[in-house]
Specification:
The complex is a heterodimer. Chain A is α/β, with parallel strands linked by helices. In chain A, 30% of the residues lie in helices and 20% in strands. Chain A has one domain (8-144): Rossmann fold. A 5-stranded mixed sheet of chain A has the order 2-1-3-5-4, with helices on both faces. In chain A, helix 1 (26-37) links the parallel strand 1 (11-16) and strand 2. In chain A, helix 1 (26-37) runs parallel beside helix 4 (130-146). Chain B is α+β, with helices and mostly antiparallel strands. Chain B contains 16 helices and 16 strands. Chain B has helices spanning 43-46, 55-58, 67-81, 91-123, 134-140, 142-163, 183-188, 198-218, 220-226, 292-295, 302-308, 315-328, 337-357, 408-411, 413-430, 436-448, and strands spanning 4-9, 18-24, 30-37, 172-173, 176-177, 232-237, 249-253, 259-264, 273-276, 285-288, 298-299, 376-383, 386-394, 400-406, 466-471, 476-481. In chain B, helix 4 (91-123) packs across helix 5 (134-140), helix 4 packs antiparallel against helix 6 and helix 6 crosses helix 8. The chains are: A alpha/beta, B alpha+beta. Chain A binds chain B through residues 16-18, 21, 23-24, 46-52, 54-55, 67-71, 82-95, 97, 100-101, 104-106, 114, 116, 119, 122, and chain B through 12-16, 64-65, 111, 114-116, 129-130, 133-135, 138-139, 142, 145-146, 148-150, 152-153, 156, 166-168, 455-465, 482.
Amino acid sequence: MSKSELSPDKILIHAVGNETRRDDGLALEAIKYIKNKFPDFSFKTDYQLYLEDVLEWCNYSKVWFIDASFGSDLKNRTTQNVPLDFNPSVHHMGPDLLASMAKEIYGSSVEVIVSELPGEDFSLGEGLSPKAKSTLNDFIVSLETQFPIELE
Amino acid sequence: MEKRKIIIDPVTRVEGHGRVTLHLNEQNQLEEARLHIVEFRGFEKFVQGRPYWEAPVLVQRLCGICPVSHHLCAAKAIDQIVGVSDETLTPTGRKMRRMMHFGQVLQSHALHYFYLAAPDLLLGMNSDVASRNVVGLAQMNQELAKKGILLRKFGQEIIKATAGKKIHGISAVPGGIHKNMSDEEIQFFKDGKEVPSIEETIQWCLEVLEHYKTFHLKNQSDILSFDQLESNYLSLIGRDGALELYHGELRCVDKDGRKVIEDMDYLKYLDIYEEEVKEWSYMKFPFLKPLGAQKGWVRVGPLARINTCEYIDTPLAQKELESFRSHNGRMPHGTLLYHWARLIEILHCAEKIQELLDDEDIKGENLITKGTRTNTGIGFIEAPRGTLIHHYDVADDDQITKCNLIVSTTHNNTAMNSSVFQRAKQIWETNPDRGEEFLNEIEVAIRAYDPCLSCATHALGQMPLKVELRDFNDVEIRTFTR
């Protein structure tokens, strides 16, 4: 996203997670920071993505979706068409599938940016692991690098 | 004797994670199928020591798809601790809880049918895996996909209006409910502005049923030959044998529809129920004591409820029940008929919600009642996937000392293993090298039961399907992945 595209009424920032599953709450921590930085945007938080979330996504030109991941690297990416090896399960109502549904079912052109924040401990409990704290820090630094003006 | 086994790990598009191993003998014949449940939750243990009034809120965390069923089943059990029964709840408490439950069953069934099952059924279980999903379904029938999404949304909004939240609600409390519905909330479901109106919802349920029936009749022989599993069926039952999802007596019939036990008060379930433990699964194998472990296993869920009931007390669903029976007979056993039964139940729930939205009691102010304190509470409810049991013992200091949960999927444990075995055997004997198709058909058999193997975290990541062919010494000799 370039700064000129950051029109608040066009963007939904959607984070999912469960703070009682340690690093699963990474995105919820991240969105606290983003809310301070971009208070005029629309925000949505939940435990997970739901089928009917597609209806809300279609109301925006961009959705910034943030979730914890099992991956090793902090990743910001656009969604992809459902790949050949994609086989959805209820657990994996993922942003790619939802974006595909927005396009195929509703003809929406919503652009979905996905931030994957790697964690390592998804067990019952509160508080982020050292790796997740580091991820969160990297995420914040990357935001400040990308949008330095808002820091002034 | 040399054996080989095929492992399907994990099973996709079921709730939670599971693994299937198919055991072959030295003649290369399929000898046994095992659906392994690899997750262990421990809720029965960690609610011990908690005050009883926390149970309805705590135990619903078992699941993100049917938390309402756990919330209400625990509330029903805890009602007894505070000396209250379904009959002595206030009318508002009784009806608000039912409305919440109908919303739950409607949304869960809609999610399962449109998102999980329909791609297999309508696109073909052997169609390209890349398009065999809800997006592929949308490309084939956009209107059907839209209706599926909105039906699910309608159910979720009913839950929010009755439970306070769409997921992990908090309104059912010992002895009642702490929320009624306002005129504005009722109007929300009638005016059709933000969600489909209740009239529109009912109409869509009928249209989806018609769509399914057309498909079914065109593909009847394939559907019925997929898996025929003669079994006992268990469910709650309402007055005069009506389909009942929230509260009633316990009924069990055999494959011919004969009562295996007399309809009974579910509080006495321990007289007839026992659970077997097998070393290879965290999930127990319940059975009816009078019939023994070999013959006493049951099936629960939509097909079971349709088979145990005499009638449905809402007119449109009753008409659909008659249609179902005219096509399939009084006691059908086809596993894929679960889907048709599920759609009849969606319609029934929508009709019930319509009745309740017109009932003045849901606006009542008298929400909670209480009676004489006891130390044991047992709750039964028909969750979307079948009969759910919560049993709590509570000490005089209000702490829970014992908790036993028998969830719907557990009841279907033996049945799912049998269905997998039947399907796998048929495929293995005709063409063991079918690979992708082979895997998916086994999954289709499991998915028909809509099992909830438990849900947990949902972080982004891969969920591959991996199949391993291993010899007796557990050495991998062949692998399929997708």
